[in-house]
Amino acid sequence: MLRKLVVLLLLTSAFSYAQFNESAPWMKDLKKSKSSNTIARTSSSSTDTYTIYEISEAFNKYWEGKDINEKGSGFKPYMRWENYWMNFVDTNGNLPTSEQLWNAWQKKQANTIGKAINPVSNWTSIGPSTHGTQSGSLPGQGRINAIAVDPNDANVWYVGAPAGGLWKSTDAGSSWTNLFDNFLQIGVSGIAIDANNSNIVYISTGDDDAADSYSIGVFKSTDGGITWQETGLNASTNPNINLLTNEIVIDPTNSNIIWVGSNRGLWKSTDAGVTFNKQTPLNITDFKLKPGDPNTVHAVSVSSYYKSIDGETFTRIDDGLPDDSGRLVIGVSPADPEVVYILSANTQSSNFSYQGLY
User: Which of 24, 97, 180, 196 is the 20 to 30 Å CA partner of 253?
Assistant: First the structure.
């Protein structure tokens, strides 16, 4: 488990906060400058939104006097993000919300004008089907955000990519089938399989790590991924924000209870996804249920740890952790449920250097 945590940090920290991410240093500066001109905000202030022009101005101000050519600095990834999303903002520079994107896609699906009489075509993958080996380049198959193995069949695997869909293997990874390729947003950051019924699968959409793609909420399949339906946590749940969902966990003692982490809070469903309630408005980047006691929730934001013993009231406990972190990931183990592991990386200004395992 510890090795998985270390690998997770190393693989993802290089991509963290490079794009529009609320914890990027220029976003922190922007939030401070905006807050100084408004009334005091509570912990729910994460709902603040900014135009792409405000974000760009803060970004450029942050980089004044800094070396933009430094390898791994995050300058180029942000510029790619800005170049992409500049085509989607309105006349005032407002980024489209998850709801707006979802509604636009639904209207497009309902529009039959110009559609081919027979839209079915035969396509064959031409690759890349193996990892790239060129020096200094990224692997050809891109990032993987989430992996889940069927608890009732070790040969059935699900894999989610940040902008590359959901994939399923029924032969332990030898071959793969794409399951989520017909939606406007095919990024997947969380996967949960119901241990009591393997045909029931939940996914949290979008890219929670680098915000390459926004979330359209949580989707549910009751036929092993063949078809998908919206749940109560969808693009309309928070209509005026850009949602980033991440981990999704099913209570091992009650399949009707679903937990989902997001930049807009930690959500809980008690009716198998029909409705969701926000348990805390905090920006939860990772969380785990205590083994043997699912009412106890361990959660982290970018730089703080929170604990709840009832799933409703969360207490911040930072004693012994670094004063400032750029990323935290959390782990627990049934081998000793009283132990919680937190792996910390430094801020971007310190090159996301390793801070320690706590």
Answer: 180
